[in-house]
Amino acid sequence: MDRAAPSAARRPRDQALPLRPLTLGELLDAAAELVRRRAGVLPAAAAVLALAEQAVLVPGRDTVGVVLSAGLPELSSGYWQLLALGAGFEALIIVWLGLLTGRGVATALTSQVPRKGLRERLRGAEAVAVGGLIAAVPAALGAFLGPLWLLGYPLFGLVGVVVAVERRGAFGALGRAASVAFRGGMRVAAIRVLGYASWLLLRFAFYLGALAGLEFLPVGPELAEWLLVPVFVVANTLAYATLAALDAALLIESRIRLEGLDLWLDRASRRREPTPEMLAVR
User: Which keywords does this Swiss-Prot/TrEMBL entry list (predicted)?
Assistant: First the structure.
């Protein structure tokens, strides 16, 4: 007698993000895979936001008299404020990109693209916009005060992916993001900071490489300063897209580790095919 074919609910699941607790290396691999799978829209959105960031920061550097093409500037009061502003922009951009990576991780887990009506999409975009602006405040203030950035950056950083995956409103997502970041020995917060620090070093290497290249070009200081802008945009595009994908992987992994999401999905999938709606917290 022939064996029955497996139901659609039990079809092999996409392994972009394994349903088990992950090591740091596995989380980084999962983030890279999520970026690869969203290789069209995610880097494009990250590039647009990184370019908009430079459109604000370049005039700011001119105002405080900072010339990055001349080498590392001194941390004057004006430049320190500009760095804090940049930290706020970075937190804002990563949260906004979380709306895309959250949808990507939901697709990876259920093999279905989240389907939402126009009203629900607008509500989600509004929640992420508001949540991102609020998340930027502790990141910028923490950077201005120095070591407090270590708490300010991860505080509300998961807002975007929480809205996308769990379909919460802005303020519900803020509370949920803070809870996920600091529970379980602050593991999620620590990994977010570590991921950011890794990309900070990579972007610094981009900057040093660009400075070395400018020495071989017959250009003046003003043109050299403008030539650095696309270098910053490219480096930041890669960083922001990857860090937003890491946030999506961290949210799911934390729920697996501390909430038993993997067990719940396994039981639910025995009755029907998994859907993105099943990832919402009830």
Answer: Membrane, Transmembrane, Transmembrane helix
